[in-house]
Design goal:
The protein has 311 residues and is α/β, with parallel strands linked by helices. The protein is built from 13 helices and 10 strands. The radius of gyration is 20 Å and the shape is globular. 46% of the residues are buried.
């Protein structure tokens, strides 16, 4: 299937590669043209990716009905790009937003595009920088028949049994929002647990413990595997990582929606508050959280000296 991709950052580039290597024809555009050109030239892509220099060229290079996948930061960057695409696409074409957009924005965008004869799918993805290798778990909202048409692309992006049509417009990003809220709580629990181990009177190998717990333990998980990787790279003290933890906004939206529906969500709420608190202090728990975000998403961390840099 032919698909256009706009935005070739950590996640967008991984999706473009996975699609091309999975046999799809990819037309790619990035604001920095050299990024798209270099990506398209990778021999692993089998010549199935074409770099273009403009949004106009991207739209012209796709055969109708066009399917354009957008991988940009939520908010204004995504809105501006969708507006540009809407002015250039034709009836029955599809825009797919894979960013961490607010589900209410996605529902609104779907209605606005429908009024212009266009279709919209909101596709929340999880998998971070590992998605190229293991696949992107995909949560999709939008018209069912439009999803069915786009499903071959989703199936290639995702691991086996790793995607779901969640419901109408906004449902995909809503499910991804709650997914990230749960992620906040899990990460906080791991961070606190390793903080206790780190502070104990025993000389413990935290990387070895993380590895142990992933074999038969009830708390085994991919996050725990990534914690072990971080300890192996940085040592028990995670000395090169400052305990400053960012958030994508989805934890805030999850808490707000829980309040709107009178759902008590103390774990997710407190995990969000702990992230905000991390920006006023430097605790070991927060070092674990920062390290985990870097491991699964390639998110930047602050060094223990206070400057931004890789872990």
């Amino acid at each position: 299937m032919q698909v256009g991709i706009v935005g070739l950052g950590r996640i967008g580039a991984g999706m473009a590669r996975r699609l091309a290597r999975g046999g799809h024809s990819v037309v790619a555009w990035n604001r920095t043209a050299a990024v798209a050109t270099d990506l398209a030239a990778e021999p692993e892509n089998g010549g199935r990716m074409t770099a273009v220099a403009s949004i106009d060229q991207l739209c012209a290079g796709l055969e109708p009905p066009r399917h354009v996948l957008v991988s940009l930061p939520a908010g204004d960057p995504t809105q501006q790009l969708i507006d540009q695409l809407a002015d250039r696409l034709a009836a029955d074409d599809v825009i797919v937003d894979t960013g961490n957009a607010n589900f209410a924005d996605s529902a609104r965008r779907a209605a606005e595009l429908e009024a212009r004869g266009l279709h919209f799918l909101d596709m929340g993805v999880s998998g971070g920088v590992w998605g190229l290798e293991v696949g992107f778990c995909a949560m999709v909202g939008g018209e069912r028949d439009v999803f069915d048409r786009f499903e071959p692309v989703v199936a290639t992006l995702a691991p086996p049994d790793g995607y779901l049509h969640c419901g109408p417009a906004g449902a995909g990003h809503y499910v991804k929002m709650v997914h990230n809220g749960i992620e906040y709580g899990l990460m906080e629990a791991y961070g606190e647990g390793f903080d206790i181990l780190h502070a104990s009177d025993y000389d413990l190998d935290l990387g070895a413990i993380a590895g142990l717990w992933n074999h038969g333990s009830v708390i085994r998980s991919w996050l725990l595997e990534l914690a072990g990787r971080a300890f192996e790279k940085e040592g028990n003290d995670l000395a090169g990582i400052a305990g400053w933890v960012a958030d994508s906004g989805e934890g805030r939206w999850t808490v707000a929606d829980a309040l709107a529906h009178d759902v008590p969500a103390p774990v997710i709420t407190l995990a969000l508050i702990q992230r905000l608190r991390s920006r006023r202090s430097d605790s070991y728990t927060d070092r674990v959280l920062a390290a985990l975000r870097n491991e699964f998403g390639g998110h930047a961390v602050k060094s223990s000296e206070g400057t931004d840099g890789p872990a």
